[in-house]
C-alpha cells in the first residue's frame, strides 16, 4: 500500500494535491500527517523525504517527492487521471506545469488558510496578474471542455487537483470570479473530497503565524477598518 506523508491540512496546499487525487480515484493509501512548524518537523520530514518537504509518497522501496512527480507516478499506474483525448491532455499538462512553476504572487500573498476569510485589497500588481491568469485558465478550460463535465477538463483530473488549493485561497481572500470561472470555483469547492479535507482542516488547532492572513496583513486590515471579506 502507498503511504502519503502530508502537512497540516489547513495550510499545506502542496499536500492537498496528491491527497485529493488519490481519494478521487479510489486509490488506497495510508495517510501520515507531519505537523509543520514544530521543533522536530524538519527532522521528521527529512527522514521520509529527500527534499525535506511534503508531500512525499512511499510505494514500498520507491520514494516519490514533489506533487507533480507524485501525480505523474500515480497516473502511470492508475488510468484516467489525465484526459484521454490527446489535445485535452496536452492542455491539462500545460496548465498543471504553469501552476507548478509559476504564480508566485498567489503563493506568497495568498497563503492557504482554509479557516479564514479576509479582504486585503488592493492587491499588488503581481497578484492582480496572477489572479487574472488563473481566471483566464479556468474560463478557457470550461469554454473548451464543459460538455464533458463540471471540472476544468470535464471529468475530474490531475488539473483539478493542482488548482484545488487555489480554490481555497480564492475563497479565503474573497476572489469571486464571474461567468464560467465562478461556476468552476463553486464546483471545485463542492467536490466531496475537498469538503472532506476542509472538514479535517477546520478541526486543526495549530497556528502557523507565517501562514495566517490576519497576522500577515494585520496592519493593512486595521488601517482599512476591515475584519473580514
Q: In CATH terms, what is the architecture of the largest domain? A: Up-down Bundle
What is the number of E strands?
A: 4
Content-based structural category: alpha+beta
CATH class of the largest domain: Mainly Alpha
Biggest beta sheet attributes: 4 strands, mixed
CATH topology value of the largest domain? Glutathione S-transferase Yfyf (Class Pi), Chain A, domain 2
Structure in a nutshell:
The protein has 229 residues and is an alpha+beta fold.
Structure, explained:
The protein has 229 residues and is α+β, with helices and mostly antiparallel strands. Helices cover 53% and strands 8% of the residues. A 4-stranded mixed β-sheet has the order 2-1-3-4, covered by helices on one side. β3 and β4 (62-65) form a beta hairpin. The mean pLDDT is 96.
Element layout with pairings:
Elements: E1 2-6, H1 13-24, E2 29-33, H2 41-46, E3 56-59, E4 62-65, H3 67-77, H4 86-101, H5 104-109, H6 125-145, H7 158-172, H8 179-189, H9 192-203, H10 213-216, H11 218-224
